[in-house]
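ugh ok fine here u go
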Amino acid sequence: MLLLCSPPPYGILPILQKFISAYKLWNEFVTHFPKKSRYTLGEKIDSLFVDTIELLFTAGYLSKEQKLPYLQRANGKLDLLKFFLQIAWELKAIDNKKYIALSKQLDEIGKMLGGWMRGIQKTPPR
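structure:
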């Protein structure tokens, strides 16, 4: 059973803001994807972005005890997202500049997510 807590203080979480910013960037790029990859690889990448946003959003509202599984799933989706973006780059569906721009943002998000998970794991249970 999920115990939803009050919304995070100060509005939207910084990691979620950064992830949404990366998604907006991706949304600009996907329209330039080759047609043969747009509805396969492009949709897979888009789906991973949306799934990760959902997991991070949900984790923001959960009690500390319930956050970790959601953050671990978000971390797994983030790793898959980076993997599929690399494949898109290798297939030349996305150019170097776009790949680098997205990769930098996703790497920073990965560090933020790792810090969030470590912070939860260090916190002793009440």
